Amino acid sequence: MQYQPSDYLPIIVQLIAAIGFIVATMIATHSLGPKRNTKLKNEVFECGIESVGDARTPISVKYFLVAILFVLFDVEVIFMYPWAVNFIHWVNTSAAVAKEMFLEMLVFMALLLTGFVYVIKKGILHWEK
Predict the structure, then answer these.
(1) Which of 44, 71, 72, 122 has the most CB atoms lying inside 10 A of its own CB?
(2) Whole-angstrom Cα Rg for the chain
(3) How many CA atoms lie within 13 A of 34 on its CB side?
(4) Using an 8 Å Cβ cutoff, are 129 and 123 in contact?
Protein backbone atom coordinates (compact mmCIF):
# COMPACT_ATOMS: atom_id res chain seq x y z
CA MET A 1 0.00 0.00 0.00
CA GLN A 2 1.38 3.34 -1.05
CA TYR A 3 0.57 6.43 0.96
CA GLN A 4 -0.54 9.55 -0.86
CA PRO A 5 0.22 13.09 0.37
CA SER A 6 -3.52 13.55 0.94
CA ASP A 7 -3.38 10.80 3.57
CA TYR A 8 -1.33 13.12 5.77
CA LEU A 9 -3.75 16.03 5.45
CA PRO A 10 -5.60 15.37 8.77
CA ILE A 11 -2.30 15.26 10.65
CA ILE A 12 -1.09 18.48 9.05
CA VAL A 13 -4.41 20.23 9.78
CA GLN A 14 -4.30 19.11 13.41
CA LEU A 15 -0.67 20.24 13.75
CA ILE A 16 -1.47 23.67 12.27
CA ALA A 17 -4.52 23.99 14.54
CA ALA A 18 -2.45 23.10 17.63
CA ILE A 19 0.33 25.55 16.76
CA GLY A 20 -2.25 28.22 15.93
CA PHE A 21 -3.98 27.69 19.28
CA ILE A 22 -0.69 27.99 21.14
CA VAL A 23 0.33 31.17 19.30
CA ALA A 24 -3.14 32.73 19.71
CA THR A 25 -3.23 31.91 23.42
CA MET A 26 0.24 33.34 24.02
CA ILE A 27 -0.58 36.54 22.15
CA ALA A 28 -3.94 36.90 23.95
CA THR A 29 -2.50 36.40 27.43
CA HIS A 30 0.36 38.78 26.72
CA SER A 31 -1.83 41.54 25.33
CA LEU A 32 -4.85 41.14 27.67
CA GLY A 33 -3.07 40.36 30.92
CA PRO A 34 -2.33 43.01 33.56
CA LYS A 35 1.02 44.73 33.44
CA ARG A 36 1.86 45.70 36.99
CA ASN A 37 5.58 45.87 37.61
CA THR A 38 6.42 46.76 41.17
CA LYS A 39 9.63 46.38 43.12
CA LEU A 40 8.04 43.70 45.29
CA LYS A 41 6.75 41.73 42.27
CA ASN A 42 10.10 41.80 40.49
CA GLU A 43 12.00 40.71 43.57
CA VAL A 44 13.40 37.18 43.66
CA PHE A 45 11.26 34.83 45.75
CA GLU A 46 12.58 31.50 46.98
CA CYS A 47 10.46 29.49 49.42
CA GLY A 48 9.50 32.56 51.42
CA ILE A 49 13.09 33.18 52.47
CA GLU A 50 14.67 36.55 51.84
CA SER A 51 17.45 36.38 49.26
CA VAL A 52 20.86 37.16 50.62
CA GLY A 53 24.08 37.25 48.65
CA ASP A 54 24.89 36.08 45.16
CA ALA A 55 23.15 33.03 43.73
CA ARG A 56 26.12 32.32 41.49
CA THR A 57 28.32 30.65 44.09
CA PRO A 58 30.77 28.12 42.63
CA ILE A 59 29.81 24.49 43.18
CA SER A 60 32.22 21.62 42.68
CA VAL A 61 31.90 19.71 39.43
CA LYS A 62 32.23 16.49 41.43
CA TYR A 63 28.81 17.15 42.93
CA PHE A 64 27.24 17.20 39.46
CA LEU A 65 29.21 14.14 38.34
CA VAL A 66 27.98 12.13 41.31
CA ALA A 67 24.40 13.28 40.67
CA ILE A 68 24.58 12.33 36.99
CA LEU A 69 26.15 8.97 37.81
CA PHE A 70 23.43 8.29 40.36
CA VAL A 71 20.74 9.00 37.78
CA LEU A 72 22.54 6.89 35.19
CA PHE A 73 22.91 3.83 37.40
CA ASP A 74 19.43 4.32 38.86
CA VAL A 75 17.90 4.24 35.37
CA GLU A 76 19.85 1.07 34.63
CA VAL A 77 18.23 -0.59 37.63
CA ILE A 78 14.80 0.49 36.37
CA PHE A 79 15.40 -1.63 33.24
CA MET A 80 16.12 -4.70 35.36
CA TYR A 81 12.68 -4.97 36.98
CA PRO A 82 10.65 -5.57 33.79
CA TRP A 83 13.37 -7.92 32.61
CA ALA A 84 13.06 -9.96 35.81
CA VAL A 85 9.28 -10.15 35.50
CA ASN A 86 9.51 -11.35 31.90
CA PHE A 87 12.38 -13.69 32.73
CA ILE A 88 10.29 -15.52 35.31
CA HIS A 89 7.52 -15.92 32.73
CA TRP A 90 9.88 -17.29 30.06
CA VAL A 91 11.65 -19.68 32.45
CA ASN A 92 8.32 -21.41 32.96
CA THR A 93 7.43 -21.50 29.25
CA SER A 94 10.54 -21.65 27.06
CA ALA A 95 14.04 -22.52 28.25
CA ALA A 96 15.65 -21.33 24.99
CA VAL A 97 14.18 -17.83 25.29
CA ALA A 98 15.07 -17.72 28.99
CA LYS A 99 18.68 -18.67 28.19
CA GLU A 100 18.91 -15.93 25.57
CA MET A 101 17.40 -13.40 27.97
CA PHE A 102 19.87 -14.41 30.66
CA LEU A 103 22.82 -13.97 28.28
CA GLU A 104 21.51 -10.55 27.26
CA MET A 105 21.29 -9.52 30.90
CA LEU A 106 24.85 -10.74 31.47
CA VAL A 107 26.02 -8.51 28.60
CA PHE A 108 23.99 -5.62 30.03
CA MET A 109 25.48 -6.11 33.49
CA ALA A 110 29.00 -6.43 32.01
CA LEU A 111 28.59 -3.09 30.24
CA LEU A 112 27.22 -1.55 33.42
CA LEU A 113 30.09 -2.95 35.46
CA THR A 114 32.60 -1.72 32.85
CA GLY A 115 31.20 1.79 33.20
CA PHE A 116 31.37 1.57 36.97
CA VAL A 117 34.99 0.36 36.89
CA TYR A 118 35.82 3.25 34.55
CA VAL A 119 34.27 5.72 36.99
CA ILE A 120 36.23 4.21 39.89
CA LYS A 121 39.52 4.24 37.93
CA LYS A 122 39.01 7.89 36.94
CA GLY A 123 38.57 8.75 40.62
CA ILE A 124 35.28 10.56 40.12
CA LEU A 125 33.89 9.31 43.42
CA HIS A 126 36.94 10.43 45.45
CA TRP A 127 35.96 13.69 47.15
CA GLU A 128 39.36 14.38 48.70
CA LYS A 129 41.08 15.32 45.43
Answers:
(1) 72
(2) 27
(3) 4
(4) yes
Q: Count CA atoms closer than 13 A to 126's CA, side-chain side.
A: 7
Is residue 86 a contact partner of residue 101, using CB atoms and an 8 Å limit? yes
- Residue 71 C-beta-side C-alpha neighbours within 13 Å: 5
Q: How far apart are CA 110 and CA 101, in angstroms?
A: 14
> What tens digit of pLDDT does each residue of 65-99 get?
888 888 888 888 888 888 888 888 888 888 888 88
CA distances from 52 to 26, 79, 110 (A): 34, 43, 48
Kindly report the pTM of this predicted structure. Answer: 0.50
Q: What gap in Å lies between CA 124 and CA 60, rounded to an integer?
A: 12
Whole-angstrom CA distances from 64 to 60, 70, 91 are 7, 10, 41
